[in-house]
């Protein structure tokens, strides 16, 4: 597969600027791979496609306020940093993106908040845009994190809209988010409400939770035509014994196992036994899924409508079939589905 195959006619007008009024009332396009049937539903109708003993797998990562605004020492130039990854808790070391990056050098100090509540020193240039910062903070770790949360902003992608609004603090987060560490939300999960999850539980649909802390790999563009040459950034994942038991029990009984989003699919496909069963794992994954690819664990998935050239679009095309997915996107455009983070969803069976 080539990068150029993942272009489609796209307009910013297709993007949802705001979430649906109610989480589970986004629109849902349902595609059955065996029959080719396409249906148009409301997201909460998803319950009708699952039976007792089926399982949904959720990514329970939690987004933290990763965007900070500050000033450079001496010049006072305005800078923005995007916290990517905590490297060392005791030393307050973080990998970050800096904008504008060209004027930031090793040794520069950066000041954040009124009365310079936080100060950071640049100690390494790791990539063309990336830096490693050491935060100079005298308090304990809880005080340091409180300062970050007070000064930080919800890291809503800029292509949605330029300014973060109060609604984003709640809605750019799944209702089941538990494990802090993501700089972007696992967007397929944003459609689930407490009421819908309860209805699924009552029906006997199982729930397994895994963790993938969404990081830079979620934003990195593909800049090679030959997809085999693209390298994904590593992201931290956790698959517990409990999740493995729930998923493998359903697989053994030939039940429906549904990955809620591309981050879940990457996670579970990163730790599979030779007989196609899920294995416990704690570590990092840089798995890049694109056609042709044989999936081992999930036989259904929920996903949003992704942007052209994105790695998420490539993964979903491997699951749905390339020609089928590109046709589904044309159908979605004609039916005025909304694309992107706050957009509508698709269930692929």
TrEMBL record:
Uppermost EC category: transferase
Catalysed conversion reaction: 7-aminomethyl-7-carbaguanosine(34) in tRNA + S-adenosyl-L-methionine = epoxyqueuosine(34) in tRNA + adenine + L-methionine + 2 H(+)
One Pfam family per UniProt: Queuosine_synth
GO biological process annotation, one example: tRNA queuosine(34) biosynthetic process
A GO cellular component entry from the record: cytoplasm
Involved pathway(s): tRNA modification; tRNA-queuosine biosynthesis
Keywords (A to Z) from UniProt: Cytoplasm, Isomerase, Queuosine biosynthesis, S-adenosyl-L-methionine, Transferase
Cellular compartments annotated: Cytoplasm
Chief place of localization: cytoplasm
A molecular function (GO) term: S-adenosylmethionine:tRNA ribosyltransferase-isomerase activity
Entry EC number(s): 2.4.99.17
Entry keyword annotation includes S-adenosyl-L-methionine: yes
Known role: Transfers and isomerizes the ribose moiety from AdoMet to the 7-aminomethyl group of 7-deazaguanine (preQ1-tRNA) to give epoxyqueuosine (oQ-tRNA).
Subunit structure: Monomer.
Family: Belongs to the QueA family.
Protein name: S-adenosylmethionine:tRNA ribosyltransferase-isomerase
């Amino acid at each position: 597969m080539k990068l150029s195959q993942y272009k489609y006619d796209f307009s910013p007008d297709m993007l949802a600027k705001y979430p649906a009024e109610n989480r589970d009332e986004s629109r849902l396009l349902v595609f059955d791979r065996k029959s080719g049937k396409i249906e148009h539903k409301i997201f909460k109708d998803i319950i009708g496609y699952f039976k007792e003993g089926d399982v949904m797998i959720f990514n329970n990562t939690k987004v933290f306020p990763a965007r900070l605004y500050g000033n450079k020492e001496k010049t006072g130039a305005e800078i923005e940093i995007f916290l990517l990854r905590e490297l060392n808790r005791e030393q307050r070391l973080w990998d970050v993106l800096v904008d504008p990056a060209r004027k930031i050098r090793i040794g520069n100090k950066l000041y954040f908040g009124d009365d310079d509540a936080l100060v950071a020193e640049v100690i390494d240039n790791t990539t063309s845009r990336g830096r490693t910062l050491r935060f100079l903070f005298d308090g304990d770790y809880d005080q340091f994190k409180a300062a970050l949360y007070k000064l930080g902003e919800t890291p809503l992608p800029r292509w949605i809209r330029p300014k973060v609004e109060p609604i984003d603090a709640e809605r750019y987060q799944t209702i089941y988010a538990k494990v802090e560490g993501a700089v972007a939300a696992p967007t397929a999960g944003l459609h689930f409400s407490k009421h819908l999850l309860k209805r699924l539980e009552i029906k006997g649909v199982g729930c397994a939770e895994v963790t993938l802390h969404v990081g830079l790999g979620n934003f990195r563009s593909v800049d090679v035509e030959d997809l085999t040459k693209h390298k994904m950034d590593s992201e931290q994942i956790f698959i517990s014994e409990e999740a493995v038991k729930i998923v493998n029990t359903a697989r053994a009984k030939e039940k429906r196992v549904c990955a809620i989003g591309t981050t879940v699919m990457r996670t579970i496909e990163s730790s599979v036994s030779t007989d196609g069963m899920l294995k416990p794992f704690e570590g990092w994954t840089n798995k890049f899924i694109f056609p042709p690819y044989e999936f081992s664990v999930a036989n259904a998935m929920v996903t949003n409508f992704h942007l052209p050239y994105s790695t998420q679009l490539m993964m979903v095309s491997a699951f749905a079939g390339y020609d089928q997915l590109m046709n589904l996107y044309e159908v979605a455009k004609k039916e005025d589905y909304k694309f992107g983070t706050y957009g509508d969803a698709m269930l692929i069976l």
